[in-house]
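Input record (one chain):
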Amino acid sequence: MERQYTNVMEEIVVTWVKVLISGMEYQTFCSCSKCKNDIITLSLNTLPNYYVTTEERRKRIFENLNTEENRKWINKRIINPIHVVGQYPKR
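The corresponding structure, as predicted from the sequence alone:
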């Protein structure tokens, strides 16, 4: 069965984790795929899901989430898992 839905929050978190991990602040942290996936899953477990089935709805949800307040809120829920995984990399 072909997947015909997407979680907009997952798209956002995956992108932000890649950006944050490649930034200067986190250069000493492991950036292997296992650690990135651990950070992503820990982050997503603290955030609400926004599943959609159409591109139009995806764009609308993305726009709603892409406010300064929401970006800060989501960012906080990504930073903590980065530090957790950074303490116990590749586990």
